[in-house]
Amino acid sequence: MAGEIWNKRKNKDVYPQWLTINVVKDADGRLTNYIATISGITERKQIEDRLHSLTHYDTLTGLPNRELFNMRLKEAIQRTRQNNSGLALLFIDLDRFKTVNDSLGHNAGDELLQQAAAHVKQSVRESDLAARFGGDEFTVILENITDPQKTQIVAQKIIQALSLPINLRHHQVFISPSIGIAFYPSDAIEIEELIKNADRAMYTAKCEGRNTFKFYSPGMNATALERLTLETQLRLALAKNQFVLNYQPQIDLPSGRIVGVEALIRWNHPEFGPVPPDRFIPLLEETNLILPVGAWALRTGCRQLREWHRLGLYPLRLAVNISVRQYRLDHLVPLLDTIIGETQVDPSCLELEITESIMIENLEATLQIFEALHARRIRISIDDFGTGYSSLSYLQRLPIDALKIDRSFIQNIHTSASDMKITKAIISLAHSLGIKVIAEGIENAQHLGFLKDARCEEGQGYFIMKAMPAPSLTDRLLRRLPDRTGIHDSER
């Protein structure tokens, strides 16, 4: 007979020991004595505890891992059934984590995960379980939930905690969470289905702008299937030449002269027809297909710009959007060097549009990238200005050529006093720093008139001219028919 026992020291601390009891018999086989042997097993116990920890806890964050999470979720569901109560599952994904990991290295990525895990754990109750599901995904189990409002409060606390700037050694970074929420038993009875539905809700939150939460709804199943189908087709689109570039003119507002074009990726699917950019661009980002597709867009746009220059349209400028995945010094600059070398385009006529939210994520890396672009005479414009984190200090420090006022400010400038003031303030700020201003989303004569009066230099939008394929635009560029906006009504 043998087994584990617990003993107590004089100071009342308990500790494990191993007890073995052997039977002693006489020559006739009669039991005469018992011999107990007690041995220490502290070291073995420590090894067992360590193995248990490695099996059930994430070594990086210290949170329960997926295996322990699944066990705890099963137990929580059993308690919920017995208590006739409710349970909420939160599925959390860190937005833009891969960007930090790629630009600052895996050590910084690990440190970010540790801090994020601490924020998530601190945002929930002691009785709730926060776990690392894998990669940059976390899960939270909330028991005894009868009111969805309580779950919403927890989700908002997590969003608030993870939206604060995070210091990683010499860098300050910004991340945000996308959170999906599913309830037991209303959204699913089986564990796997509950996790899957919370995951679907998380992807919906990510697709609808990130830094938010979404409750699961049955319609998300169809959306998930549609997304999977779209992703499969998207992986084939580049090889099958289904992408095209359309170009939207940018005009000098005082004269109406076309000074540049913005290249916009369009997807013409043979079965689905034209696929809206807001459906496939986020998928390109998530699947990393934005890297080959972005390189194709840069190369195609530069070839077209070189052709326009050959036709006598120099110094027409080409603006190309740069995604968060492309925004790495070791990727972007060598790619530009290669494409400029291949196409022999004048780099001073190439303008890269970078959103201020991307720019501000890692200011030191941004400074290196901007200086490399500036040294090559490539122009830089900050896209969607006014919607992110930029401040006067950043604008003073970085070599920026232009600010693009986000269309959300332009749309309501005649009905919203605040939008009007913000637009005027951006223009005044840019001019004080010697930076050009481009307004996007000009959709009527009122927009155009206001921006001219405010001394905005350039603009683009449907009222000026819609985006169109290169052959159509080439004909219009060569005709140069000016009117009050620089473009005849027949050309819009």
TrEMBL record:
Record-level GO BP terms: cellular response to nitric oxide
Domain PAC positions: 1-53
Enzyme class at the top of the EC tree: hydrolase
Chain ranges of the EAL domain: 227-481
Entry-linked SUPFAM superfamilies: EAL domain-like, Nucleotide cyclase, PYP-like sensor domain (PAS domain)
EC number, UniProt record: 3.1.4.52
Swiss-Prot/TrEMBL keywords: c-di-GMP
SMART domains per record: EAL, GGDEF
Keyword Zinc-finger among UniProt keywords: no
One Pfam family in the UniProt entry: GGDEF
Record bears the keyword Transport: no
Single annotated GO MF: cyclic-guanylate-specific phosphodiesterase activity
Annotated ranges, domain GGDEF: 85-218
Reactions catalysed: 3',3'-c-di-GMP + H2O = 5'-phosphoguanylyl(3'->5')guanosine + H(+)
Cofactor: Mg(2+)
Protein name (database record): cyclic-guanylate-specific phosphodiesterase
Organism listed in the record: Methylocaldum marinum
Organism classification: Bacteria, Pseudomonadati, Pseudomonadota, Gammaproteobacteria, Methylococcales
